[in-house]
Amino acid sequence: MNYQELLVEAKKNIGPHCKVCKVCDGRGCRGVIPGPGGKGTGAGFVHSYDRLRDIKLNMNTLYEKNQEPDTSVELFGHRFKYPVFAGPLGAVAMHYSDLYNDLTYSQAVLTGCQEAGTLAFTGDGTDDAVFKGTIEAIDGLEGIGIPTIKPWEDHIVKRKILMAQEAHAVAIAMDIDAGGLAFLAKAGQPVSPKSVASLKNYIDMTSLPFIVKGVMTLKGALDAREAGAAAIIISNHGGRVLDETPAPIEVLEDIVGALKGKVKILIDGGFRSGIDVVKALALGADGVVIARPYASAVYGGGSQGAKFYTEMIGQEIADAMTMIGASKLDDLCKEHLFMKNF
């Protein structure tokens, strides 16, 4: 299997909304919802991808190589082979095709990532059976997965936190950037923004590390830390909840400057290669979350597709590190980047 073959198979199984573009940059699906497109003009999705292209790597092979690059990362007491994690995707039957539903997709991506030495975040939905099923899948993998809870009404959030804790998940995430999704309210389960006090209440009720996904400002990052978050994910929800947002990579440095070492800082938004991952790590991120390409990987090859894609990204990280003179992830810094046009 190679990546192009994986995409060919995915294209047979996905449709009609997602075109399985050779480059998943948001241009071929602007505003396509249902489907993988960015909201409105699609500018948020496209801009996130494009701004990563404005950062280059400084090549330097004038050094003595003593070992193969170490791409491993520690997160919440676990050591993972790569600093790359599959992002949560929901309503896959609607957005991609009914070859998978939310439960079977989650099972495939969880298994593939675990076999590759990393992990996946799982999605949430209005059907309680989906969350219950993904929790069972995570439990079956000895907790190697992170369930993501939408900002539902309090009693629903609290019930799902307890379910995640019983499965001994690595951590719990909440995608607060879903707080304005009107279609969920129409489905009978409204979501809403959460105050710092509400977030703290959720975090205090569990012993598991709590990750706040959807932070896009320094104030939001500081608020998440005040609430007790163990980690944040800098994310604009793939450009799917608000048009004309900055790219996550554009706000990374300010947040790192204030919170590096105080919380784990993850980021998503347009990352498509190991080189992209190295860029974020060199700017201070602790890890990168990738979502849409995992849909193509799973629809093209099931759990083995997710494993293959993860390992491909991991090898690209190692190759880039060799070419810029970094032997481990902690070596990566801004000096490895060329940012003249950023």
Quick synopsis:
Helix content is 42%, strand content 12%. With 342 residues, it is α/β, with parallel strands linked by helices.
Describe the structure.
It is a single chain. By secondary structure, the protein is of the alpha/beta class. It is built from twelve helices and twelve strands. Strands 4-11-10-9-8-7-6-5 form an eight-stranded parallel beta sheet. A two-stranded antiparallel ribbon has the order 1-12. A two-stranded antiparallel ribbon has the order 2-3. α4 runs parallel beside α5, α4 (102-116) runs parallel beside α12 and α9 packs across α10 (248-259). It is globular and about 60 Å long. The chain starts with a helix and ends with a strand.
List the helices and strands and how they pair.
Blueprint: H1 3-13, H2 43-53, E1 56-57, E2 73-75, E3 78-80, E4 84-86, H3 92-95, H4 102-116, E5 121-122, H5 128-140, E6 146-149, H6 154-166, E7 172-175, H7 182-186, H8 196-204, E8 210-215, H9 218-227, E9 231-234, H10 248-259, E10 264-267, H11 274-282, E11 287-290, H12 292-324, E12 337-338
Parallel strand pairs: 4-11, 5-6, 6-7, 7-8, 8-9, 9-10, 10-11
Antiparallel strand pairs: 1-12, 2-3
Helix pairs in contact: 1-12, 4-5, 4-12, 5-6, 8-9, 9-10, 11-12
Features:
alpha/beta, 12% strand, 342 residues, eight-stranded parallel beta sheet, two-stranded antiparallel ribbon
DSSP strand (E) fraction? 5-15%
Total helix count? 12
**Helix-strand category:** alpha/beta
- Gross morphology: globular
Largest sheet: 8 strands, parallel
- Say how many strands there are: 12
Q: What integer value in Å does the Rg equal?
A: 19 Å
C-alpha termini separation: 36 Å
